[in-house]
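In response to reviewer comment 3 from the previous cycle, which asked for concrete evidence that the modeling workflow produces usable outputs, we include below a single protein chain processed end to end. The sequence was submitted unchanged, and the resulting structure tokens are shown without manual editing.
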Amino acid sequence: MKKFLMMIVFVSVSTAPLFAKSGIDLELGVGAWTPTLGGHLNFTGGDAAGTEVEFDDMEYEKDNGKYMYMDFNHFVPVLPNIRIEKTDYKIVGEAENIPLKVFGFLVNSDADLTIDMDQTDIIIYWSLPFVSTATGGVFDINMGLDAKKYDGTILLERKILGVSTTVEEAEIDQTLPLIYLNFILDIPFTPIKLDATTKFVSYDGAKISDNSFKLSYKLPFSNALVDVNLDVGYRIQNITIPDSLVDDLDLDMDTKGAFYGVSVKF
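The workflow returned the following structure tokens.
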């Protein structure tokens, strides 16, 4: 993340005059997101077949997830704008008294559950015509398509005498198309901008939604060439994936929590 921040500063200083004169906007952002976990999963095959884990009943620790994004916006109406987002997080939880197979028999046992997830969104979008012009730049609506790629693992480890042994590991490697909608309100005469985004799809038994609300505060040392913002917000994701898409796993997982970061736009 430090390298990314240094890149933001370098690119901002070296290229801001170019973008200011060309009518092209480039926004870069980076921050932290630490989600809480809800929902459940069922292992439908393998050594953990018949095991159901309720996330709400678990005690878990979480590493600080992180996000970064790049948004390229230009003045040609027929060509799409481009936004790329990267998010990753890791959650480790302890589940008590869940049924696990031992020598072919189901017995209640404690287990550790680790969810390690990377997400990449490649978004093409267009601004709704005339909305920004009609409102004097106060309000804007963006619509487009998102290719969201999940790359992660879900690992269940039985604890025997304090020693963890792998029971089941599920790999998630899926790319799904989502609808992208974004609403921006630039509050007049204030340094505050509000941003609400939703991405969603229902496909072949899978349901994906990714919703966020962000408040950006423009820092006083921003100028005509570069806006530097502090960002705070809240993000809610739901991933419902049946075992028809991921072998031996039926997953309904909610991740939600506050995020904070910094962004620059020039």
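The radius of gyration is 22 Å. We consider this sufficient to address the reviewer's concern, and the full set will be provided in the supplementary archive.
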